Amino acid sequence: MAYIERPSPNHAPRPDGTTVDILVLHYTELPLQESLHILSDDSRETRVSAHYVLAEDGTTYRLVSEDRVAWHAGRSHWRGREALNATSIGIEIVNLHGDRHDYPARQIASLIELCQGILARHPAIEPRNVVGHSDVAPQRKIDPGRRFPWKTLADAGIGLWPEPQGRPLFGEVPAALQRYGYAPPIAVPPRDIVKAFQRHFRPARVDGMPDPETRLILAALLDQTGAR
């Protein structure tokens, strides 16, 4: 895959022995050039970056090498771990608001190609570990938004999509969400965690209520991952 090199100074070495096992997808909420500037600005009090930025026309910019830490996830939690920058790759996708604006087909086609290459280079990124920023920071973030085509990516071998089999979820939803990967309810309000899950897997209604459909989808994912 061809990249435009747009190096950012905002990066750090990965700790010795680190295995990259998480892929975090974001939206920029800003136009391309403004996004590239912010992700490359080393004069800010809080410096940020990402490994890649994906323009609306599908053009891919590489800002940070995959063997370096980019500062994209911030305060984050997934599958019992915090501060995920050290073990993750971050992709910023140009979209002004993923709850209101669809992602262009050519942008998603480029994203699929980019992600497939990343997964090939980092086989420790299992499907459950392809996540949105809102999954790993549910109290702070909503990207990549309700219009992000997670099923399209899953159909291309990137991430998971639920296959409900009619087996209900018994027990507490917050505990089940934690088994899947989300932060424990003592760290983040349970309703925020449920909303993050719905935003990813049931975007038609994101209300934070663990209704029967939400429970059924969660049960299917736990079965698919062996986490039931």
Kindly summarize this structure in a few lines.
The chain is an alpha/beta fold.
Poorly predicted ranges (pLDDT <50, ≥5 residues)? none
Which structural class best describes the helix and strand composition?
A: alpha/beta
What number is the mean pLDDT? Answer: 95
Cα gyration radius (Å): 17 Å
- Termini distance? 38 Å
- The tally of structural domains comes to 2
CATH topology of the largest domain: Lysozyme-like
Strand order of the largest sheet: 1-5-4-9-3-10
Count of DSSP-assigned helices: 7
Shape: globular
- The helix fraction, in percent, is 25-40%
Question: Major beta sheet, specifics?
Answer: 6 strands, mixed
Give the topology string: H per helix, E per strand. EEEHEEEEEEHEHHHHH
- CATH top level class name of the largest domain: Alpha Beta
Report the β-strand fraction as a percent range: 5-15%
Tally of DSSP β-strands: 10
CATH superfamily of the largest domain: Peptidoglycan recognition protein-like
Please identify, by name, the CATH architecture of the largest domain. Answer: 3-Layer(aba) Sandwich
Task: Describe this protein's structure.
By secondary structure, the protein is α/β, with parallel strands linked by helices. The protein folds into two domains: 4-155, Lysozyme-like; 173-225, PGBD-like superfamily/PGBD (Muramoyl-pentapeptide Carboxypeptidase, domain 1, Orthogonal Bundle). Helices cover 30% and strands 14% of the residues. A six-stranded mixed beta sheet has the order 1-5-4-9-3-10, with helices on both faces. Strands 2-6 form a two-stranded antiparallel sheet. A hairpin with a 2-residue loop joins strand 7 (77-78) and strand 8. Helix 5 packs parallel to helix 7 (212-225). The mean pLDDT is 95.
